[in-house]
């Protein structure tokens, strides 16, 4: 037997160190070639580190949250033969993904031997008995989901790699009536004294740093405007009925992207980046719209490039493709960078008003709130209209309040008279 040492690989772009975000194996696990061992975080992306060999994990080189230098020892694996202990090397292939919120999907097809048996007694169905102090493998999103459902994770059987508990495992547990919801009613009023500490590492740390940096460096101000979207919703429904089967269904987002493109012709100062260190504002002709997208590990902003050259259906297709890629951890680094203005929406949860945080170095972000039906007075008559607020934020160092108001009013006019979106 020999030892194969995997060093932190050189990911490129002059990066000298990266953050170890998450281990997918532990000491004693059996691994196979191409199985994902760990996630590491660069400034822009999460990168999967696969194993180049079959073997048994005998040592881990760091802890999640630790910043490691390129070339430092990441993991040691016991292998058949002589191994490479004297000449350590990085994996032959590094699979890059901006986020990997569903790492189990990347490795669940590996042979069962890839994961060592967990020290637990598996019972029938989705129920499993673990030691009281044993912390089952699960992502932060799954832990929160379990907490919201009142499920003790140590009682749930994990079907992911190395016994990792997945969202589907929680649903299976509930389906068999094992959740706390099936306990006596008195349990719902029992005192709780449990605590859980969650490290702010990986993508969550990057998001926290970017949000803090944006609020500290930019002079945020927000402007909210109410928009009657009855007409554009009627147009959207008509287009979907006529062309939905052949071209795909349209959401409101591609119309909003189109409204941004048209409005920016008269307000180019909104489609800009501000380098506050060099004191230079760069206005761009190309409209690269960042579309804020929620994933299991946090907010991502994939970019619809050259929105000014796209039709409604082209924009819709690209928005859908990018959103799915971001949620599934498949978006490339280029697809998550380079935006010039950002569009953010919470969909049906959009609330009445929000205060979006700028995506630096951009100077404007347009936030979409939910659509509600309300009685409105139109030409002296009370009628039911579909209303929606735009809650948008700007960098007051670059954008004057009057310009921001006029910009949003321009978008309002375009959406309330949707034919003007297509008049050249």
Q: Order of strands across the widest beta sheet? A: 12-21-20-19-15-18
Please tell me what the overall shape is: globular
Largest sheet: 6 strands, mixed
Which structural class do you get from the secondary structure elements? alpha+beta
Radius of gyration based on Cα positions: 25 Å
- Number of DSSP strand runs: 21
Mean pLDDT: 83
Alpha carbon gap, first and last residue? 72 Å
- State which percent range the strand residues make up: 25-35%
> What's the number of helices?
8
Low-confidence stretches: 87-124, 178-182
Residue share in helix: 10-25%
Sequence of secondary-structure elements: EEEEEEEEEHEEHHHEHHEEEEEEHEEEH
Structure, explained:
- With 424 residues, the chain is an alpha+beta fold.
- It contains 8 helices and 21 strands.
- A 6-stranded mixed sheet has the order 12-21-20-19-15-18, with helices on one face.
- β10 and β11 form a beta hairpin.
- α6 packs across α7 (312-327) and α6 packs across α8 (401-416).
- The termini are far apart.
- 39% of the residues are buried.
- The model is unreliable at 87-124 and 178-182 (pLDDT under 50).
Entry summary:
This protein has 424 residues and is an alpha+beta fold.
Sequence-ordered SSE layout with sheet pairings:
Layout lengths: L1 E6 L9 E7 L6 E2 L4 E6 L4 E5 L4 E6 L6 E3 L3 E7 L15 E3 L5 H5 L13 E2 L5 E2 L10 H10 L17 H9 L26 H16 L2 E9 L1 H18 L5 H12 L7 E4 L4 E4 L5 E3 L1 E3 L2 E3 L2 E2 L7 H16 L13 E5 L18 E15 L2 E15 L5 H16 L8
Parallel strand pairs: 15-19, 19-20
Antiparallel strand pairs: 1-8, 2-4, 2-7, 3-6, 4-5, 5-9, 6-8, 10-11, 12-21, 13-14, 15-18, 16-17, 20-21
